[in-house]
Structures are given as structure tokens and as C-alpha cells.
Amino acid sequence: MHLHERRDDVPDGFTSKGPAPGDQTLQLRIALVQNDIEGLQNKLLDVSTPSSAQYGQWLSKEEVGAFMTPKPETTTVVNEWLSANGLNPTVLSPFGDWIGFQMTVSHANELFDADFTTFVHDASGQNAIRTMAYSIPTSLKGHVELVHPTITSTFFPQVPGPNDVGLPIISTPAKVIVPDVAPASCDTAMTPTCLQQLYGIPATVATQPSNKLAVSGFISQFANQADLTSFLQTFRPDLPSTNTFTLQTIDGGTNTQVLGRAGIEADLDIQYTIGVASGVPNFFISVGNKFQDGALQGFLDIINFLSGESAPPQVLTTSYGQNENTISLALANSLCNAYAALGARGVSILFASGDGGVSGSQSATCTTFVPTFPSGCPFMTSVGATQNVNPETSASFSSGGFSNYFGTPSYQTAAKSAYLSTLGSTNAGKFNTSGRGFPDVAAAGVNFEIMWKGSAVLVDGTSCSSPTFASIVSLLNDRLIAAGKPVLGFLNPFLYSTGASALNDITTGSNPGCSTNGFPATTGWDPVTGLGTPNWTKLLTAVGL
What we know:
Oligomer: single chain
Largest sheet: 8 strands, mixed
Subcellular location: Secreted, Extracellular space
Low-confidence stretches: 155-182
EC number: 3.4.14.10
Pfam families: Pro-kuma_activ (PF09286)
CATH topology of the largest domain: Rossmann fold
Number of helices: 13
Strand content: 15-25%
CATH class of the largest domain: Alpha Beta
GO molecular function: metal ion binding; serine-type endopeptidase activity; tripeptidyl-peptidase activity
Number of domains: 2
CATH architecture of the largest domain: 3-Layer(aba) Sandwich
Helix content: 25-40%
């Protein structure tokens, strides 16, 4: 047996209750080593870099599959091992690189030389079964990436509330807006009209039905149509109030329309993607809780679901995340590679960077800076937050920093080097100077007006910023498709080259945390607001329109 993964300490906020019951059933997954992940990553950069002769030549599902599908011998040796141990795996991904099966705790302990233990989450009282280490047969080395859930420390999906990862913070008291009356100032109440004015976003309706914008929905956050209708009547009366979204569900997801169960995150994301990306077909993907895999379940399954589609949406925005140190390096790599695979299909993947400044996804006590995931992954676009209109400045909660798992991608080398040179010795020893920096860009994220459970409220967070930036990308894609050009796809190589001058550079503010002032925003890229906020007119020029 070969020790495959381990962690040395019980995760913060959890307490061991002792060995898990031997007859308890576990739902486990194995990630198989893919055929040529390095080749896929190189291909992704080729088709995403404006100076490349292959720019915009997005790959087909089959072309991506040639990189992602495990070698036949990998599939054979793992399946034979599982079969010999009485297990019948099910393929869980379109390329066969993830398989799943169920077994008892006692069987798992024996098969993986593990010690599955019951842990209790101190804050919620919920239990989860995990092991601090596991092994695989030496014959499977080079064929198995990881087994999950095993050592990852994020045992439960986040629950709605102001202390959650990437979720908006409800302003107190909630501000009730009189319908059809414009706010006195966009500094105190941000609306679609304010965003149009701030970034030059057109109100004209998109024309291309093949252009799609998808919103991720997790943890029973339901997008409510009645709230959306009220929002459009109040804040976008020029659009039909009957505008809606197409629901897609996976892992047993649902989307109840009981007004009292409307989700503040889901309402925010849907109202601002429909309210800003005027006329772009909108999809809400509700991910349920079918498996026992904690955080991996939704994040991976939604990407596998979209990767299996013949025509996935060109933009996906997600307002959830977690601290990077809550998952294993192997798991982080597997998820990041899944983003690369979907990005190579021409999909722009955007995530909120988090709301804890340099202390992580939410404000927390710390001694060294806490990067968030998946913002550290180099194959997606991380969105930070700003506040105010004149002048626009960074929001103090905007999570940003440098990954401890992922190195600096080639497209970011120059921008990051320039920032570190300016930073000097500030915060020395508190972050990984060789890590991938985030966020990549930013957008407004304070005092967003939404309709929630029939009332107007204000919300803050990078949860506001990601759907805003995603909406602008979707509108650009609409123009590109109409002109017979390829969509933007994986954004970062474009943003750090041709697109950099089309962004409003935010040079004031910082993101405090860990008993420091965090990182200062400055000229050029910074780990607070990235390269800056969108400028529609300049972006049109930058994409060749």
C-alpha cells in the first residue's frame, strides 16, 4: 500500500467523535489520472491568447475528451481492482475520469488502510465521516488522482447567512424602495440603471438566441419568479416583466416558487444577470444534495454536467467559494482541471473572490493571509468588489491575495511582478509570493437593490460583482456572435493583454484582515480589484467590434 493523501490536524471548527460505525454506507468517488492534462492546459492558453494564431478556435467536446479521457489501461486496472473487491463503479463524468461507488465504513477502512472517523461541526452540530489519511495499492500509483470524500475538511455545504462563503450580506435595516422611484444616489443604492451609467452598459436587448448565460445555484437557494417580476417592474421597466430563466437541475436540485423560501443569493444573481444582460437567455442551474461529498459535489458536478452538453452556456457565474486550505491539493487540482476543460470549449467561468479581505472567504481571525478557492485556480476568472461611484474605490471586504496551491500563470507574470515590486516589504512573510494572484477583475459590490421575499433589500458582497461582470461578458458575446466572431471564452489571457486597457483601474482602498491593512490597491493589477472594472465602450474596441 502507498500513502496517497493525509492531513495532520483536525480542521478548525470540527471535533472528532471517534470511529465511524462500521456498517455506515459511504458514497465515494475516485478521480482517475487523465490522458494529457498538460496538453489541455497548453491548448487552452493557445486558443485564449489574442496574439495566438489559434485564438478563438474553441475545442469540441470530442477534442476536449481526447485530453481528459483516462488511458485504457488506467480505466482497466482501477475497475479490475474495484471489481475484485466486490465494488461496481458508475461513471460520473462525460469523459470517464470520475467514477463512483458505495461501500461500508469497515470495507473502506480495510480497502484504503484508512480510519474513517465521525466529526462534528461545532457550529451546526452536523456530523460527517472523514479520514485523516488513506492509502491505495502501489499498482494504482499513476492511475488514481484521489479518492473523495476522504481528507478534505469542508464537510458541509455552506448555509445561508452573513457569515457564509461568497454569500451577500443583508444590509440592516433593509431599505424598502418605493416602486418606480429612482434612488437619489448610486452610492447608497446600486441598481441596473446605476451599473449602466457607471460602466456604459447598453440597455438595448441582445439579439442572438444561441448566446447563453448560466447562474450556479447551491444549498437550496431558490430563484423566485415573483421576486424577479417585481424587480424588473421596479428597476428595468423597459424590459418585459415576464422575462424569466430556464431551470436546469442536477443532483436532485429543485427550485420551489414558495415566496417565503426565496434565496437571497439566487434572487440576487438571477435579477442582476437578467436585469443587466438585457435579453440574453438565462439559465439557473440548481444543484441538489444527492451525494455525500461536501463541497466537491456541487462544484464538480455542475462542471461535468455542462461539459456533457453539446452546446454549453458561453458564460457561467458562481457566487460561492471557500478557503483554499479547506480542501486537499489533489482535489483543488482536479476541480481546476475541470474548469480548464470547460474553458477550452469557449466558456467564460467567473467566481466571486470572497468577502473576507485577506482573511479568506469571510472575515476571520488569522496570522497569515488566507487565499480562497477556486479563485487561486489559473483557469477561471476571479471577480473582486468595489464601492462608490465618484470615485469608484475598492470594497474593504474584497478577498484577494496569492494562492498557496497554484503558481503564477504565464499571462499574469508581468502584472504580478509589477505589483510585488511596488509593494516592497509590506506584509512580508504573510503570503506566497510565487502564487497565482487574484482577483483578476472587479465590479461594484455594495448596496445592490434586490427584491427578496416580496420586499426590497440591499445586499453587499462579491456575490454582486461576479454576476455583474458576467452579464457584461454575455453582452459582448452577443455582439461577437452577431458579427460572426468567436465568443470570448476563457477570459484571463485576453484581460491581461488586449483587454487590460479597457478596464477602469481602481487605485484606492485596501482589503484588511489578519490584523493588517491587507493589500493596497494601486496602479495596474492588484490583489484587491485585479485589473479593474469594466468600460463597455473600450471593451467593444478591445474585442474587435
